[in-house]
């Protein structure tokens, strides 16, 4: 039952270990290719929009940097031969780092794959971190808002929740087509 699942999620939200456990699960889960969106939805449902968004923001940026540095440490030298065959990729990542990262974060590509690809390229971490910080914010806001609004509908206030869900769904659709418009 949705109300029982929600009660279970919300039963731990005030526990001191819950938020750090969520961040750890996010970093580890996305490293093994669990969809980051799943975590965004869970935190929005469990903690509501404001705190869920804060947790998602912290967890996403920590995991992105952790994945980046692990992949850079383990993969850059190993990928040198492959990258030599695609000089435009490495040159583009270096030259257009921030702009490239902003654009790619709008695409539905798995979080860990983007982090690893950026790490093995010549992209600077500063460009990667800033592009991740600002490029993922629209998705974070929309998915957290969507989950939070859905929960409001389960708890009560269905009419208001439906309006929030319609707005969130419209924003998700707009965000899906935004990269095509830029291209």
- N- and C-termini, Cα separation: 43 Å
Poorly predicted runs of 5 or more residues: none
SS strand fraction: under 5%
Per DSSP E runs of 2 or more residues, the count of β-strands stands at: 0
**General form:** globular
Oligomerization state of this entry? single chain
User: Please, how many helices?
Assistant: 9
Largest sheet: none
Q: Radius of gyration, rounded?
A: 18 Å
Mean pLDDT: 81
Helix and strand pattern = HHHHHHHHH
The helix/strand class is: mainly alpha
The level of helicity is over 70%
Tell me what the structure shows.
The chain has 183 residues and is mainly alpha-helical. It is 85% helix and 0% strand. The chain contains nine helices and no strands. It has helices spanning 2-11, 18-31, 36-84, 87-95, 97-104, 111-120, 125-135, 137-155, 158-182. Helix 2 packs parallel to helix 3, helix 3 packs antiparallel against helix 8 and helix 5 (97-104) packs parallel to helix 7 (125-135). The longest helix is centred in the N-terminal third of the chain and has 49 residues, at 36-84. It is globular and about 55 Å long. The model has no long low-confidence stretch (mean pLDDT 81).
Short description:
The chain is mainly α. Helices cover 85% and strands 0% of the residues. It is built from nine helices and no strands.
């Amino acid at each position: 039952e949705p109300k029982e699942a929600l009660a279970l999620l919300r039963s731990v939200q005030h526990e001191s270990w819950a938020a750090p456990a969520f961040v750890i699960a996010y970093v580890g889960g996305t490293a093994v290719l669990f969809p980051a969106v799943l975590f965004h939805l869970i935190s929005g449902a469990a903690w509501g929009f404001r705190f869920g968004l804060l947790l998602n923001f912290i967890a996403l940026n920590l995991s992105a940097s952790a994945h980046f540095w692990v992949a850079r440490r383990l993969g850059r030298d190993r990928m040198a031969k492959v990258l030599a065959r695609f000089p435009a990729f490495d040159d583009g990542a270096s030259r257009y780092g921030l702009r490239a990262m902003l654009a790619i974060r709008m695409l539905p590509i798995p979080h860990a794959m983007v982090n690893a690809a950026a790490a093995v390229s010549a992209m600077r971490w500063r460009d990667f971190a800033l592009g991740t910080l600002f490029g993922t914010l629209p998705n974070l806001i929309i998915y957290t808002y969507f989950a939070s609004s859905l929960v409001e509908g389960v708890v009560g206030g269905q009419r208001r929740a439906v309006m929030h869900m319609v707005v969130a769904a419209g924003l998700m659709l707009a965000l899906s087509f935004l990269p095509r418009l830029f291209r």
